[in-house]
Design brief:
- The protein is of the alpha/beta class and 409 residues long.
- It contains 19 helices and 14 strands.
- The protein folds into two domains: 192 residues, Rossmann fold; 182 residues, Glycogen Phosphorylase B (Rossmann fold).
- Helices cover 44% and strands 18% of the residues.
- It has a seven-stranded parallel sheet, with helices on both faces.
- Helix 12 links the parallel strand 8 and strand 9.
- The longest helix is centred in the N-terminal third of the chain and has 17 residues.
- It is an enzyme of class 2 (transferase).
- Keywords: Cell membrane, Lipopolysaccharide biosynthesis, Membrane, Transferase.
- It comes from Cetobacterium somerae ATCC BAA-474.
- Its EC number is 2.4.99.12.
């Protein structure tokens, strides 16, 4: 009650503020005023909610399994704009899947949706805790947290508001967590231990694209790297690019490809490269003919192509790990047989990074010297691809385990 009274009190001030922020105003209006005609009225739906791109990318196997096992449509809601775009690209042609922007936990819009369709299950990917969504949703359907994760950073914050979280957790029918540590933490926060299960990480069930030898050869020619080694820095964050450029300067006969996590950072990276007196090319379209100019660094200003670059890489760095972000997908380069190099900030990929390090199929570095030594090591002693394949095989089927437990609840 207090939560909604506070929201109602703040709404007028929010809209006044947003009048001076056109982009943010658009963001809010797109979520509060949505056309529900893409939904089939009174039809049965499983509602999956994701935060952003990362969650959208890891639910493929889960969505496929839900469609096979349940004769219901799927409503997929996404919080961020980039996540919504990726969801539309992946699922908009599927007649059984409808995609909406998440309505910012507004109780009136949520009621409108729940009254428009019949929701049998709500699936919150990772730890999306929205009070109105959970309180209201529990009156219409069962709610499950899937691929649940409580990071080192979020755990202390959640503990401070456990008095708010615990009543919400009582409305949830099942918690399907990535690891034993995540299970222990969510129980400490108030989840019923009899409803908490370890099902593994859905990331291992992702269907990664495969590329033919011809595709990879064409891409190498396109970026003018038939003979040079290819150093791909994926999902880089602010503060990492300058370190990568310094490392790159020490390498010979190498092309550096920087793929930032957020494209709005491309101008910032361009400035860093210019100040380093290095030549570069900005890539916005893989279909265009490359220029005849030689360049040392390729800055990728395009979404959805990182995996293609990982497939041709000789050296791979995974971003969000040299700065306190917590890391991005270490599995993507591994799928293409490339051993990832990453920094010490691994809270988002904690369990996977531990397994990778224990199996010696990836490397953690703390400084430039360690970075260069690791590159030299990988050149002389590359990791066996069979070892990487065995790692994937031993961790798959998280989606299947999740659905099995869900059916029992």
């Amino acid at each position: 009650m207090f939560y909604n009274l506070l929201r109602g009190f703040l709404y007028p001030f929010l809209f006044i503020f947003l009048l001076f922020k056109p982009k943010k105003l658009k963001f809010v209006f797109q979520r509060l005023f949505q056309d529900l005609s893409t939904l089939e009225k009174k039809a049965k739906y499983i509602w999956i909610h994701c935060s952003s791109v990362g969650e959208i990318n890891l639910i493929d196997a889960l969505v496929k399994k839900l469609k096979n096992d349940f004769n219901e449509n799927i409503l997929l809601t996404v919080f961020t704009d980039t996540g919504y775009e990726i969801a539309m690209n992946k699922y908009s042609k599927d007649d059984r899947i409808s995609i909406l922007r998440f309505p910012l936990d507004d109780i009136f819009i949520l009621k409108k949706i729940f009254n428009y369709i019949q929701v049998s299950k709500i699936i919150l990917i990772e730890t999306e805790i929205w009070p109105n969504f959970i309180n209201l949703g529990s009156k219409y359907s069962k709610i499950f947290i899937v691929n649940g994760r409580i990071s080192n950073k979020s755990f202390p914050r959640y503990k401070k508001i456990s008095w708010i979280i615990k009543p919400l957790f009582s409305k949830i029918s099942g918690f399907f967590m990535q690891s034993q540590e995540d299970k222990n933490r969510i129980i400490l926060l108030g989840a019923d231990k009899n409803k908490v299960f370890v099902t593994g990480n859905l990331k291992f069930d992702i269907s990664f694209e495969t590329f033919s030898s011809e595709d990879m050869s064409n891409l190498k020619r396109f970026i003018k790297s038939d003979t040079r080694k290819i150093f791909v820095a994926g999902s880089t964050r602010q503060g990492e690019d300058s370190i990568l450029i310094d490392v790159f300067k020490e390498l010979k006969n190498t092309l550096l490809i920087i793929v930032p996590r957020h494209l709005e950072r491309v101008p910032e990276i361009e400035t860093l490269v210019k100040n380093s007196n290095l030549t570069y090319k900005k890539l916005t379209n893989l279909e265009l003919n490359p220029s005849s100019e030689e360049f040392q660094i390729l800055i990728v200003d395009k979404m959805g192509v990182l995996r293609k670059f990982y497939s041709i890489a000789d050296i791979v760095f995974v971003g969000g790990t040299l700065v306190n972000v917590g890391g991005h997908s270490l599995l993507e380069p591994l799928f293409y047989g490339k051993s990832p190099i990453f920094g010490p900030y691994l809270q988002n990929v904690k369990d996977i990074s531990k397994d990778i390090l224990n199996l010696n199929i990836g490397y953690k570095i703390n400084n430039k010297e360690e970075f260069l030594n690791t590159i030299n090591l990988l050149e002389t002693k590359p990791v066996s691809e069979d070892k990487i394949k065995a790692f994937f095989k031993s961790n798959q089927n998280a989606a299947e385990k999740t659905i099995k437990f869900m059916e029992e609840e």
